[in-house]
Write a structure and sequence with these properties.
- By secondary structure, the chain is mostly beta strands.
- 10% of the residues lie in helices and 48% in strands.
- The protein has one domain.
- The protein is built from two helices and nine strands; from the N terminus they run ββββββααβββ.
- The strands form two sheets. A five-stranded antiparallel β-sheet has the order 2-3-6-5-4.
- Strand 7 and strand 8 form a beta hairpin.
- The longest helix has 8 residues.
- The relative contact order is 0.19.
Length: 121
């Protein structure tokens, strides 16, 4: 079920932050250009997408011209998160001015234990 997320787009850095205003971040993981925040229930509370225009271009099967100019016109964001096997399936629905929209899906591996690479020495 899609849930409304708030958003903040920084066009200078092409960084898009999507977040649940009712959930506080307790921890984060970084996977390539994604920084995913989790709350104390291990639910996703926020997603920061670095190089957002390139990220969505790579996922867009409808070939919408995803650019920083388009992302500046973002007017709404809905996200659905489902666990399938060992993956989190994140479905994005971005709504723009002039009734344009982008539906995209990303799959990331689930992480149930802290990575030794993230251990503090």
């Amino acid at each position: 079920m899609f849930k409304n997320f708030n958003y903040d787009y920084d066009s200078e850095n092409d960084s898009l932050f999507l977040y649940d205003p009712t959930s506080k971040s307790k921890s984060s993981i970084e996977l390539d250009d994604l920084i995913i925040d989790f709350n104390n229930k291990k639910e996703i509370s926020g997603i920061e997408i670095l190089n957002a225009s390139s990220f969505f271009k790579s996922l867009d099967i409808e070939m919408l011209d995803v650019s920083t100019d388009l992302l500046k016109t973002l007017r709404g964001c809905k996200i659905d998160i489902v666990t399938k096997s060992n993956f989190l399936v994140i479905k994005f629905m971005l709504l723009f001015e002039e009734d344009r929209k982008l539906a995209a899906t990303a799959m990331i591996p689930t992480i149930s234990e802290p990575s030794p690479a993230l251990a503090v020495v």
